[in-house]
Amino acid sequence: MPELRFDGKVAIVTGAGHGLGRSHALLLAERGAKVVVNDIGGALDGSGASAGPAADVAELIVKNGGEAVASADSVTTPEGAEAIVRTAIDAFGRVDVLVNNAGILRDKSFGKMTVEDFDSVLAVHVRGSFLVSRAVFPHMKEQRYGRIVNTTSPAGLFGNFGQANYSTAKMGLVGLTKTLGIEGARAGIKANAIAPIAWTRMTEALLPAELEQRLGADKISPVVAFLAHESCETSGEVFSVGGGRVARVFVAEGPGWHTDDLTAEAVAENWQAILTEEPHLQPTTLGEQAAASMRAML
Ligand code: NAD
């Protein structure tokens, strides 16, 4: 297998001043990509800002012989998102890869979660990924090529105590990924998402200390590199990644139960049939799912 290279390609990695984004940016640069290292440089809860983290990572890439520029713009505003993409165009003339990675946490049990906790988390993860994708989309469409890698989470896919805001945001990214995959198809734009588990400042208080090395960010970035590469033909999919394991996560629907005489009592009586998982369907569009309901009515 030849090395997967990114020579001549330009990548934007958001939230690349720390943790996973830093690791993705370093790997893409090592493989020949010119990288825009974006990071607002704030605290884990989104407070504060500093140009330092993005500048440090860009500097390290250049020191290692690569090409990179830093951006400290926030992904949460249309102006910030446009500025990130303009940085890439001004410095390198194009954008081939976008890794939407920036994220914050405001964990609280549901009864204590404020509207601000909810809105601020959705603003970075969902609105931020939408805004930067929206800003790169015309460039990718025009060159009929692009790779977008979003960052979801097992917390969104499967739920987690204290993370109503975060899990809502992360499941939102699954919807964005699937629809970007559909809408990007004709222009050669592939969109996929990773659901990582790794040792970073976001998880260091939660994960056992002895797993720091085995759950390193370096066990996540190779999957991002593959999904960002031109040889990746997959689109609209989600992969859980951690500690060297990579698995496809899919949204499936059971075979279902149908009646022409639906009542609440009939639902209760047939609940076990409704809960049945096999044989399951894996619709790849809304149309495929709707077809299953149509078929059951025939
Ligand atoms: P991290 O805190 O080290 O990195 C997140 C980065 O995003 C930070 O450097 C932060 O400054 C930056 N950022 C925050 N708001 C921003 C904004 N408005 N604009 C630009 N940059 C901004 O945490 P991490 O673990 O590396 O997280 C990276 C991504 O992976 C996040 O989306 C996170 O939700 C996701 N994730 C991580 C794990 C894990 O196990 N570490 C699990 C699931 C999902």
Q: Percentage of helical residues? A: 40-55%
CATH topology of the largest domain: Rossmann fold
Which percent range describes the beta-strand content? 5-15%
Q: How many individual domains?
A: 2
Mean of all residue-level pLDDT scores: 97
Please provide the count of β strands.
8
CATH architecture of the largest domain: 3-Layer(aba) Sandwich
Total count of helical runs of at least 4 residues = 10
The secondary-structure class comes to alpha/beta
Ligand names? nicotinamide-adenine-dinucleotide
Please give the CATH class of the largest domain: Alpha Beta
Largest sheet: 8 strands, mixed
What does the radius of gyration come to?
Answer: 20 Å
CATH superfamily of the largest domain: NAD(P)-binding Rossmann-like Domain
Q: Tell me, what's the shape?
A: globular
Stretches where pLDDT is under 50 for at least 5 consecutive residues are: none
